[in-house]
Amino acid sequence: MTERDAARALAHPDAAAIRLEGVLHALSDPVRLSIVRDLDGSASALACSSFDLPVTKSTTTHHFRVLRESGVVRQTYRGTTKLNALRRDELEDLFPGLLDSVLTAAAAEEARLGKA
């Protein structure tokens, strides 16, 4: 991490501060859930700009902030790019099976409603 990147470090809750209601709130929005689904399917962190979302840039920023502040994602800067990674291991330790259950249910709903 460069000195400039360190100066732009974003605040994230420690694992002990992550609350179930915050995680559920973050995952309850369809746009945020689609972000989490994309992150879950990626082998590496993704830039905010790599998501094709049906909302404005400012609304996209809001959704990423909600996900970060609830502890669902970790955001880091690489140069001018903000990268996003799912905090899967920490969430699994705190709430065993929750993320898998939500993602499985989201996929089943998508199949049921024919949004494939």
Task: List the topology elements.
Elements: H1 3-7, H2 20-27, H3 30-40, E1 46-47, H4 57-70, E2 73-78, E3 81-86, H5 88-94, H6 98-113
Antiparallel strand pairs: 1-3, 2-3
Helix pairs in contact: 2-4
Characterization of this structure:
With 116 residues, this protein is an alpha+beta fold. It has a single domain (3-99), classed as Arc Repressor Mutant, subunit A, CATH 1.10.10.10. The chain is 53% helix and 12% strand. It has helices at 3-7, 20-27, 30-40, 57-70, 88-94, 98-113; strands at 46-47, 73-78, 81-86. It has a 3-stranded antiparallel β-sheet with strand order 1-3-2. Helix 2 packs antiparallel against helix 4. The protein is globular and about 40 Å long. The mean pLDDT is 92.
Number of DSSP strand runs: 3
pLDDT under 50 segments (min length 5)?
none
Question: How many angstroms separate the termini?
Answer: 39 Å
CATH fold naming? Arc Repressor Mutant, subunit A
Structural class: alpha+beta
* Fraction in helix: 40-55%
The CATH superfamily label reads Winged helix-like DNA-binding domain superfamily/Winged helix DNA-binding domain
Indicate the multimeric state. Answer: single chain
What number of structural domains do the residues give?
A: 1
- Tally of DSSP helical segments: 6
- How much beta, percentage-wise? 5-15%
Describe this structure in a few short sentences.
It contains six helices and three strands; from the N terminus they run H-H-H-E-H-E-E-H-H. The chain is α+β, with helices and mostly antiparallel strands and 116 residues long. It is globular and about 40 Å long.
